[in-house]
Amino acid sequence: MLSNRARLVVKTVALTLSGLGVAGAIGGLVVLRGGFYDISATEQHYPVIYTVLAQGMQASVAHHARAIVAPADLGAPARVPRGAVLYQANCVQCHGGPGVAPSLHGMSMQPAPGPLVDADTNWKARELYWITRHGVKMSGMPAWEYHLSDDELWDVVAFVSAMPGMTQDDFRRLAGRPAGQAATAGEAP
Amino acid sequence: MNRARIVAMAGLAVLLAACGPTRPAPGIQGDPERGKVALTQYACHSCHIVPSIPGSKVYVGRPLDDMAERRYIAGKLPNNQHNLARWIMDPQAIDPGNAMPNMGVSERDAIDISAYLLSQ
Question: Whole-prediction pTM value?
C-alpha cells in the first residue's frame, strides 16, 4: 500500500506526462494540418533531420544487405561495359559521372542524388547491389528489382565500383553523353 | 530595466542578422541569399560540402567553405567574382577534362552563387 505522499507523486507524474502528451499531439496536429512545414524541394532539410535520415539509411542498408553474397565473377572484365550501358540508360540522368552532368530533374531533387565516384568509400559491393535492387524510400532512388535481371544488377555494381578509377574520357567513352553536350541541351526553355 | 532589456535584445537581433549570409561581402555583386537556393538547384552540394547547406560528408569536389580566402580557382584562375562565375558556368572551357561537369548554370545564377560563396 502506497503512502498518501507517494500516491500524490505518482498521480502528479502521470497527469503531467499525459498533459504533455496531449499538448504535444495537439501541437503536432496543428503543424501537420496547418501546412506550416515547408515541403518544397527549394527549402533545405534542417541539418539534424538530414543527418538522422542519412545515418538511418546507412544502418538500414548495412543491416538488410548483411547476408548477400556477391557472385564470384563480380570482377569479370565483361561486366564493366555491360554495366556501363545500363548506367547510361538508367543512372546517369540523376547521378552524372566524372565531367558529366546529371539531367535537370536529377539536379533539382531533394535530397540531391549523390555522385557515385565515391560510392566505394561509402558502401560495400553487396550494399550497392541492395540499394540498386530495392531503392531507398523518400529519397527518389527507385527499385530496379522488377526492371533489371539479377545479373544486370551486379553488372551495374561492377561498373559503379570501377568508376573511382575513371577519367572523364574513360567515363564518356563507356557511359557518358557525347563531349560538349551541355546538361541543358534539348531541355532548356 | 525592461526597456534596457528590449534594447539589448534588438541589438542582439541586428547583430545576428548581420552575421547571416544575406549581407554580401564588400565589392560583391548579386544576391547571396538567392544564390544559396540556386546552388542547391544545380546540385552543387551533391559533390561539394557547402557552408550552411545540409548534406552528406562528400569529398568529390573540394569543400567550398573558404572561397573568399582562396587565391586560385582550380589552381589556375586568380580568384575573383568574375572568374568564379565563369568557372561555375563553364569549368570545362577553363580546365578541359576535369571532373566538374558544365551544369548549365545561367549567368544570373552563377553571379548569385558566387556572391554566396564569397560572402561566407
Answer: 0.82
